[in-house]
Amino acid sequence: MQPVQDSTSAHVKDPKDPTPTPSLSLARQHICAGRVSLAKNLVEMLPRELASIDQPEERVAEYFHYRQFFTIWDSLDRVVECQRLEVSIMNRDTRAAWLSDYKGLIDQAYDAVVKLLTSDWMMPDETGDRRSRELTRVQQIFVPELILRLHVMLYAS
């Protein structure tokens, strides 16, 4: 008779394998379900040392892709927040400072989104396994979302 495994023991990993496979899988599931802030919090709890891990390469790349995505998501939010700070009663110097900040944020967000969309962001492998299907789903949801948010941001500016 085999011992019963609880849900946490299914995620016990080999101590020689420092990649956070269960955490990345959970983050991917949250993103697929549209829960970006939960996925972001989960990825932010992972150690920064993951950047120096060599194996498996696709997991480290996925970790970097999440970091890149959340940075862009935050930069788009900062543009919206900055836009809300505009008031009609600003003196010339205040308006010039606000406009400079606003343009800088727009440029940063635009450059980051274009860089992400022209890279191999979240490219699934050809295995057709669950991870590949989830990465495809992330792309299907968030590539149009990023393009739409970028368009709205540029149109409103």
TrEMBL record:
<comment type="function">
    <text>Functions as a component of the nuclear pore complex (NPC).</text>
</comment>
<keyword id="KW-0653">Protein transport</keyword>
<keyword id="KW-0811">Translocation</keyword>
<dbReference type="GO" id="GO:0015031">
    <property type="term" value="P:protein transport"/>
</dbReference>
<dbReference type="GO" id="GO:0017056">
    <property type="term" value="F:structural constituent of nuclear pore"/>
</dbReference>
<keyword id="KW-0472">Membrane</keyword>
<comment type="similarity">
    <text>Belongs to the nucleoporin Nup84/Nup107 family.</text>
</comment>
<protein>
    <recommendedName>
        <fullName>Nuclear pore complex protein</fullName>
    </recommendedName>
</protein>
<feature type="compositionally biased region" description="Polar residues">
    <location>
        <begin position="1"/>
        <end position="10"/>
    </location>
</feature>
<dbReference type="GO" id="GO:0031965">
    <property type="term" value="C:nuclear membrane"/>
</dbReference>
<comment type="subunit">
    <text>Part of the nuclear pore complex (NPC).</text>
</comment>
<dbReference type="Pfam" id="PF04121">
    <property type="entry name" value="Nup84_Nup100"/>
</dbReference>
<feature type="region of interest" description="Disordered">
    <location>
        <begin position="1"/>
        <end position="24"/>
    </location>
</feature>
<keyword id="KW-0539">Nucleus</keyword>
<dbReference type="GO" id="GO:0005643">
    <property type="term" value="C:nuclear pore"/>
</dbReference>
<keyword id="KW-0906">Nuclear pore complex</keyword>
<keyword id="KW-0813">Transport</keyword>
<keyword id="KW-0509">mRNA transport</keyword>
<dbReference type="InterPro" id="IPR007252">
    <property type="entry name" value="Nup84/Nup107"/>
</dbReference>
